[in-house]
Specification:
With 731 residues, the chain is α+β, with helices and mostly antiparallel strands. It has 18 helices and 27 strands. An 8-stranded antiparallel sheet has the order 7-8-9-10-19-16-15-12, with no helix packed on it. A 6-stranded antiparallel sheet has the order 6-11-18-17-14-13, with no helix packed on it.
Length: 731
């Protein structure tokens, strides 16, 4: 009896100890993107809301298919070929399988994650520098550490989701074989990247920090948050402070903001769940919420992100923006209107935030997201120029004018001070080349940036802005460019029918300063809004001045007599991007120059003011490009050899072309004459007129913005007076 009581007591003590152990560990994982309580909610509601039910079913299909294949963890060989893509697919599948395990309890999914990680634990210690690595940023598993950081971010989430299912022995093998060695490689061998203020550092610190939370490793966490010296001068928190302006504009531009927003939000979510006292979502004035708004305001009505700096085609449906929208909706009470973007995206994240959005969307019809005229400052303090976006017209058929006067934008920035873009009814009319790259296309330099990115895409001539003496702004020198951000003058949007943006680019080349003022004008006499463009060049001596217009569409007509280069062509120049432009035709004019093209059923005309011996050059990309790396795209250049001068133009959508019904209407533009009536250091007046009774005068002041200043100029026998920075006088 005594022996039985002792045995019972021993069993009870073991049970109590086991319960205490479970109490210490239960609920600790997952801890990055969902809690155990949220997992229970997702389990209960995974089929209730269509968007979350769809993501769950897609996840099941993906992983069930993966379970039927042999595991594949290949030795790295390429930068964008099979091994590269296989390792990317592996981390996606591990993360999805981890969540499937949490929501179903099916251990096959957890086993899949474990078995893949054990194979990585065998492979990683054997790897040296990646065979396709270039420069100092080479990784081991991937050709650059950026991709390796992305792997660690996503794999940390997967590991967190199966952590408590794994045996201690499996954890030790995985952590000592791959997870800790990778983190050590980043912290020790890539310290300069960890401490950068750059999107590579954002991904790397996110990977280190998220792994730190999973492993309860304070050193990893502090390094990720505060930099390798843990001083706070670098690290993730400092990146939030320095990479975004107070308006949420990201220093490298909207394309890279779309890319970096993923680690910013997913690491912020991990921080909020594990160290809420840091109030990461409130940092820098709640700038992460502003950042997603800034990206959305820099998209067209079609949802395309505008292409400035190094950029390629991306839309609001990009996976990074799906995550950012869901997390921002879940974390910021003032961003509930993002629900309409989530509806447009048509998918949600496979986590707690995704469930919250799917639940909110169920049965609701949110009002469309309002894309409006907006100015976004650049620089961490908002004092390094910015970008002005003017919109006119009804939602669904807007015209969109963009004037870029930002800071350089680091290594992904282009030398394009006062570059402009024009989008009409979703059509990209006046365009930007963006980046010379074919992402993940192995035959094109392994999917990396092509050499033509530096020799053409970054150069000033690849943009719709002034070029002096065929020399790119600041001689295409990054260090010089970063010292000279654009300077805002003003943005005026009080009158929806007449909106104006103005900025200055000082000393862009050879002592030349440029000021550009643009207006987006709606008028009952016109079918579509038009753009007025007054670009004043201040120069103390004569220079060759080129103003390109890069357009999309088919050339229809020009009023300039030109000679077409039909039997032979030559590059326009020898360097600074000019070597990549074929001169396809050229002419000269002393009167208004008009160029019309057709794009998707609409005619577009640029009419530019007369000036003695102004050249019109038609060009096309592709010269000195033996590997056919550049897209073949048209442009035309206005060229003058002169000192201080004004390039004044009007950009006009007009008419329609319907090929099915063979209908062509309104192919002649309403304005066909542009004259600079007056210009001085103080002000410029430009007249725009047509064959009918239409006649406008656009008066702009120069120099510092002053809304109260009065201006008076004499034009022939007429006196023109206005107060403020600008005035538009119609008829």
């Amino acid at each position: 009896m005594a022996r039985s009581l002792c045995a019972l007591l021993a069993v009870m003590l073991i049970l109590v100890a086991d319960l205490r152990s479970q109490h210490r560990t239960a609920g600790r994982h997952p801890r990055l993107v969902a809690s155990p309580m949220e997992v229970q909610l997702m389990r209960a509601e995974r089929g209730k809301y269509p968007l979350f039910a769809a993501v769950f079913q897609n996840a099941r299909t993906l992983i069930d298919s993966a379970l039927r294949r042999p595991l594949d963890v290949p030795v790295p060989k390429d930068a964008a070929g099979y091994t590269h893509e296989r390792h990317k697919q592996n981390y996606r599948e591990m993360q999805t399988a981890g969540m499937m395990y949490q929501l179903t309890g099916d251990e096959r999914y957890a086993s899949f994650v474990r078995d893949l990680l054990l194979q990585y634990a065998k492979l990683y210690p054997s790897l040296g520098l990646h065979p396709a690595a270039v420069g100092k940023s080479g990784g081991r598993l991937f050709w650059q550490t950026l991709n390796e950081s992305v792997w660690l971010v996503n794999t940390s989430i997967a590991y967190d989701l199966v952590y408590e299912w794994l045996s201690p022995d499996d954890r030790a093998r995985i952590e000592e074989g791959v997870l800790r060695p990778m983190a050590k490689f980043f912290i020790k061998d890539c310290a300069s990247t960890v401490d950068r203020i750059h999107n590579h550092a954002t991904w790397m610190t996110a990977g280190i920090g998220m792994l730190g939370y999973v492993l309860d490793d304070k050193r990893y966490i502090e390094t990720a948050l505060k930099g390798t010296k843990q001083s706070g001068d670098a690290g993730f928190l400092r990146q939030i402070d320095l990479l975004f302006s107070p308006d949420g504009y990201y220093s490298e531009g909207p394309y890279y903001s779309r890319y970096a927003i993923y680690p910013f939000f997913v690491f912020a979510e991990s921080i909020e769940r594990n160290q809420p006292e840091l109030k990461v979502y409130e940092r820098h004035g709640g700038v992460l919420g502003k950042a997603i708004e800034a990206i959305l305001q820099l998209t067209t009505e079609n949802g395309d992100i505008i292409q400035i700096n190094d950029a390629m085609t991306k839309t609001v449906k990009a996976q990074e923006l799906v995550l950012a929208v869901d997390y921002a909706f879940a974390r910021y009470p003032n961003l509930q209107h993002l629900l309409s973007i989530a509806a447009e995206q048509g998918k949600v994240t496979f986590d707690a935030a995704g469930l919250a959005v799917a639940k909110a969307l169920n049965g609701s019809r949110p009002a469309p997201y309002a894309k409006r005229s907006v100015e976004l400052s650049d620089g961490s303090n908002g004092d390094e120029g910015g970008i002005g976006v003017l919109r006119a017209g009804e939602q669904g058929s807007q015209a969109m004018l963009v004037l870029k006067y930002t800071a350089q934008g680091g290594g992904h920035g282009h030398f394009d001070r006062l570059n402009m873009l024009f989008v009409d009814e979703g059509r990209s009319v006046l365009t930007d080349y963006g980046a010379a790259r074919f992402v993940n296309v192995e035959p094109k330099y392994g999917g990396r940036y092509l050499k033509e990115n530096s020799s053409y895409a970054m150069q000033s001539v690849a943009h719709n802005t002034i070029i002096v003496d065929e020399t790119s702004h600041y001689a295409a020198n990054l260090e010089a460019g970063e010292k000279h951000p654009g300077q805002r003058r003003y943005v005026s949007t009080n009158d929806p029918s007449y909106q104006v943006v103005s900025a200055i680019a000082p000393d862009i080349a050879n002592g030349v300063t440029v000021e550009r003022t643009m207006a987006l004008v709606t008028d009952a006499a016109l079918t579509r809004p038009v753009v007025l463009d007054v670009l004043k060049v201040f120069a103390k001596r004569a220079h060759q001045l080129d103003l390109p217009f890069h357009y999309d569409g088919h050339l229809i007509h020009t009023n300039v007599r030109y000679e077409a280069r039909t039997s032979s062509q030559k590059p326009v120049g020898k360097a600074n991007g000019y070597q990549h432009l074929w001169e396809t035709a050229g002419g000269e004019s002393d009167s208004t120059i008009s160029v019309t093209w057709l794009l998707s059923g609409r005619y577009y005309t640029v009419a530019s003011a007369a000036a003695p011996k102004t050249e019109l050059l038609f060009v096309r990309t592709g010269a000195n490009d033996p590997n056919f790396n550049l897209r073949s795209e048209p442009a035309f250049l206005l060229r003058r050899d002169t000192t201080t001068t004004v390039f004044a133009s009007i950009i006009q959508p007009h008419g329609v072309f319907e090929p099915v019904d063979e209908l062509s209407l309104g192919y002649r533009p309403p304005f066909n004459r542009v004259r600079v009536l007056f210009t001085s250091d103080e002000a410029t007046v430009v007249e725009y007129s047509g064959d009918g009774a239409i006649r406008w005068r656009f008066a702009v002041s120069h120099g510092p913005s002053d809304e109260a200043r009065s201006h008076t100029v004499r034009i022939g026998g007429e006196t023109l007076t206005w107060t403020g920075n600008h005035s538009l006088i119609k008829n």
